[in-house]
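Supplementary notes for students who missed Thursday's class. We covered one full example, reproduced here. Read the sequence, then the structure, then the short commentary at the end.
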Amino acid sequence: MSDTFAFAGVNGASLYSYGSHQIGGNTSPPVERSRQARSLSKQPGGRSQNAEQTALTIDRTAFALSLFEQRNPHDVRLYFPRTGSELWCSSTMLRATSPYFKDLLDSGFSESSTNTTTVLTPIPSEEDLTSSPRLSRRPDSETGLAQLGAEGGAGESGTMFEDSDDEEERTNPPPRAPKSHPRSPASAAPFHEIIVQDATYTTYRALLSWLLTSNITFRPLRSTLLHRPDSVSPKSIYRLADFLSLPSLKSLALASIKSQLSVMNVAEELFGDVARCFDEVREVEMEFAARCWEVVKDSEGMRTVERRLEEGGAGAEGIGLTMLVLARRLKSSEH
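Structure (token representation):
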């Protein structure tokens, strides 16, 4: 294997090169590339080709992940102060793939600026959605669920959402950045620094890898009672993709959430904080719950939700409003 990697991003454009071996290069968008990979198994000899494709995917992803830990050849440092971790990436890649980062880099970082520091606006919690006009969402047509304030906040942990990569990093913290500061004389090349306040190293690492390879592995929802630490929360990815205006990745995360719903866990998901903040997630989960209501209503998950409502406290208002919307949905389905 040669030493150079050339990356083509989610829009098919060449983002940057590293060495002389090419990773990516397929100009199809991620969804189309996924279809192409699945179609291999339907072609003569497809099983063998699919195995080769899987091996190549693993190789590309592993290299991409290791690349983000290296200072060179990158010019953007993402620093995560809560864990003291860092990731490195290309401003070309960020501009080409995310409208948010394009605006940030074009307005805040001139080509001549060096070692500029900015602060990435946090992903909004439910309280943020009401307190910040810039972050406010369109009110839900029936209940205004997405406008709940502190009483229906994003979980008892404040801005930390339930079933997120924040929780995983408390148990398995990511590697800390080297003690030698990147602004030292040995690392004098100009770079931009972005301090990430309310998204995790784990979530960003998976997102950056997806931008280059179109591959991502989602962790099972906590409500499924399964656990896979070597993957990323679909809820965390959904929130970050929404914030960075990456609709293809949002769709992948939503599909992962939807595929894991069952009559046993849908109540926990529907009455959780992510569903309260994001209409699209809530609609998918409410449709499933309404369709299977005869079983869902007697599930342990639903009994847990009812106990939380009776106890009051954080999230109780959101649970009550979601129940009202669900009751209307069930009533309309009877006619």
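Commentary. The first strand starts at residue 4 and ends at 8. The chain has a mean pLDDT of 75. If anything here is unclear, bring it to office hours.
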